[in-house]
């Protein structure tokens, strides 16, 4: 069985790389005119143009790998079927599932590789491409904030009508102290203005009104501060960056900051959900490729190729459709990201079962 597994694995990997290189070349050729135009306009030097093409590779690899796996699986299994190897192995008592076990395992590791490329190399490549094109990538925090909002680790909610981040000064400050279970308001503090003392690392409020809802009391003070109020002004603002140029770690951190400051995070959540789901398309579509090529009929081999391409692009369409649903808030983005995988995996397993007979 080891010789069989090595033979099957070697042929699958060979077919996969042939398809992958072909798709990469096609996509690079489609982008060359754009690169030539940028070089011709003087926006890129020749060296920068080469670097620009290299930076494209992570995105291209992520997008074309599922198709390369699908067609690679179809090519290698069709060749085995055409040489009557599949029938011979089945006759000797080896099931089709056992024959294709190692290609399925290999496709899973291909998905892991794509996950790493998509989560870490692709964002860096995208950022570098934008820098080479001269696109502005903001790296500075805003100096002012209106309607600032944040929740700290003590379950205190800060609401500021206006905040000057540089000076650490705020107008119309409201602080709501919540219970430990975050189900009841304990105190509400109103202040006309306040400032953050950067030496003591604490907020100092002026013209303050404190409503204690538990005791039913109200207190007016000229000044007020508490050791609990230590949220720095910089935490009320966040750098709004396109999630495509942030790696997984940076994107998760950015989403936390956006959530704390009350900014809509749907686009960022949809991006991270896509990064966790789309790479595993390679593992999903391999079932379809193996099943389609398992029954070799000379007259239908071209039809199998057309059908596999149709199914491959069908996956992209279904995945993109549900991704749009997630971005628009109709469904949870993480659920949307995996629906296409689940649908096509079920279809692929069904065809693998049918290929046994």
What's the quick description here?
This protein is α+β, with helices and mostly antiparallel strands and 357 residues long. Helices cover 58% and strands 17% of the residues. A hairpin with a 4-residue loop joins strand 4 (185-197) and strand 5.
Q: Strands across the major sheet, in which order?
A: 1-2-3-4-5-6
| Poorly predicted runs of 5 or more residues | none
* Number of discrete domains: 2
Strand content: 15-25%
Rg over alpha carbons: 28 Å
Largest sheet: 6 strands, antiparallel
- What percentage of residues falls in helices of 4 or more residues? 55-70%
* Secondary-structure element pattern, one letter each: HHHHHEEEEEEHHHHH
Overall geometric form: elongated
Tally of separate helices: 10
What is the average per-residue confidence, as pLDDT, rounded to a whole number?
A: 85
Number of strands: 6
Structural class: alpha+beta
C-alpha end-to-end distance:
21 Å
């Amino acid at each position: 069985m080891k010789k069989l597994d090595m033979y099957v694995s070697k042929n699958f990997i060979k077919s996969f790389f042939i398809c992958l290189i072909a798709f990469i070349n096609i996509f690079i050729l489609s982008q060359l005119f754009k690169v030539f135009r940028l070089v011709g306009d003087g926006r890129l030097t020749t060296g920068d143009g080469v670097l620009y093409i290299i930076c494209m590779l992570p995105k291209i690899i992520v997008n074309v790998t599922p198709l390369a796996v699908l067609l690679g699986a179809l090519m290698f299994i069709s060749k085995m079927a055409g040489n009557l190897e599949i029938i011979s192995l089945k006759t000797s008592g080896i099931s089709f599932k056992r024959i294709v076990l190692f290609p399925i395992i290999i496709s899973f590791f291909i998905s892991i590789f794509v996950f790493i490329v998509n989560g870490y190399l692709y964002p860096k490549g995208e950022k570098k491409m934008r820098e080479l094109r001269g696109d502005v990538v903001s790296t500075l925090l805003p100096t002012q904030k209106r309607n600032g909002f944040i929740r700290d680790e003590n379950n205190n909610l800060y609401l500021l009508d206006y905040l000057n981040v540089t000076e650490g000064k705020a107008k119309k400050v409201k602080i709501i102290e919540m219970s430990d279970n975050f189900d009841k308001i304990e105190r509400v503090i109103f202040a006309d203005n306040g400032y953050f003392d950067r030496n003591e690392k604490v907020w100092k409020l002026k013209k303050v009104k404190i409503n204690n809802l538990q005791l039913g009391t109200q207190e007016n003070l000229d000044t007020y501060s508490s050791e609990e109020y230590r949220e720095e002004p910089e935490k009320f603002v966040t750098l709004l960056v396109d999630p495509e140029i942030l790696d997984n770690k940076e994107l998760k951190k950015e989403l936390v900051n956006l959530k704390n400051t009350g900014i809509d995070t749907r686009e960022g959540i949809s991006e991270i959900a896509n990064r966790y789901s789309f790479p595993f398309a390679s593992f999903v579509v391999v079932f379809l490729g193996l099943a389609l090529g398992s029954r070799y009929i000379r007259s239908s081999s071209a039809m199998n190729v057309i059908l596999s391409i149709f199914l491959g692009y069908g996956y992209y369409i279904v995945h993109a459709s549900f991704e749009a649903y997630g971005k628009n808030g109709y469904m949870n983005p993480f659920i949307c990201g995996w629906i296409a995988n689940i649908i096509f995996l079920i279809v692929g397993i069904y065809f693998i079962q049918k290929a046994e007979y």
